[in-house]
Structures are given as structure tokens and as C-alpha cells.
């Protein structure tokens, strides 16, 4: 499944290479608004007549993509690196399937490492119950829940959470690399 995801990652990196050069940050509002110049992007790539890419750029998914990935200062990821730094490599691999497959496998490995950052954590398997274990007499019934105690614990938790500082994500933000200009494609 990671290799299929890596293939789609490469596909979207190829489709959207240079999109950052067509973003415009408008700061006249209380919160900045990001605008994407679709015609400039299509014109610079020579794809004005391409119906597929035009429909992709007009879709709601791409609008969400621009609003999420448009800010110049945010946490970067594998897609940003592909779009910014792997332009030439992807171009060179178009005529060489073994190199392309090798790159897809490298991306799949990176995706796997991103989702499983600590490979040393072993998942403990729970053994299956033995045959007839449900007939044993020594199993105690589940205790009744004390509603008053549950309410007390909830109130304590609420009191602690109101005094605690808000939780923040540990993502390190950086300036997103713009990559080469669209005209190179």
C-alpha cells in the first residue's frame, strides 16, 4: 500500500510542480488570504487547453490543498521536498523504469518511516483464549460502576484541564521551499 501511495505522491508532485510560484498572499484581512493564479500556472506550463488539469485546479480538493499548503511558513513534509527538490530526478526517470521503481520504493520506505517512527516498539500479541475457558467458574463478574465516583473524576479532570496550558503540536515550522519556477517545466 505504501508503494501505491508513493506513486500517487509522485503523480501529484509532477502535476503541481511550481504551484508555489503562482500563490499570492493577500494580507489586507485580519487573517492572510492565499490566492492561486490558475491561468498563470496553466499558461507557464503550456497546459491552458488541458481539460483534466483545469478541472483539477477548479475542484474543491485543490482549493483545500492551496489553503492548507499555501502558507509560506508551516511544517514541511515529503511532498514539499518532492515538489521543490526532485524536479530533475522525476524528469530523468521518465524514460528509465528501473530508476523510477527504485525511487517509488524509496518514497514508500520514507512513508513507512513517517508512520512508524520508532521501529523498536514491538506489538504484543494477545493469546487466544483456550477451549472451554468461558465455562470456568473462577471468572468474577464485572463490577458495578459507582456513578458518584465517575462524576467526581470527571469534575477533577475538568478542573485540571481548565488550569492547564493548551496542548500544542510538536511540528517544527519552517519556510516552505518554493522550488524551481514554473517556466522550467
Q: Give the amount of beta strand, in percent.
A: 5-15%
The number of distinct helices, counting runs of at least 4 residues, comes to 8
Q: What is the number of beta strands?
A: 4
Give the % helix. 40-55%
- Mean pLDDT figure: 81
Name the shape in a single word. extended
Find the structural class using helix and strand composition.
mainly alpha
The end-to-end distance, rounded to whole angstroms, is 30 Å
Explain how this protein is built.
With 185 residues, the protein is mainly α. The protein is built from 8 helices and 4 strands, in the order αββαααβααααβ. Strands 1-2 form a two-stranded antiparallel ribbon. It has a two-stranded antiparallel ribbon with strand order 3-4. α1 (2-15) crosses α5 and α1 packs across α7. The longest helix has 19 residues, at 97-115. The model has no long low-confidence stretch (mean pLDDT 81). This is MTMRD protein. Residues 1-76 form the UDENN domain. It comes from Nyctiprogne leucopyga. GO terms for molecular function: guanyl-nucleotide exchange factor activity.
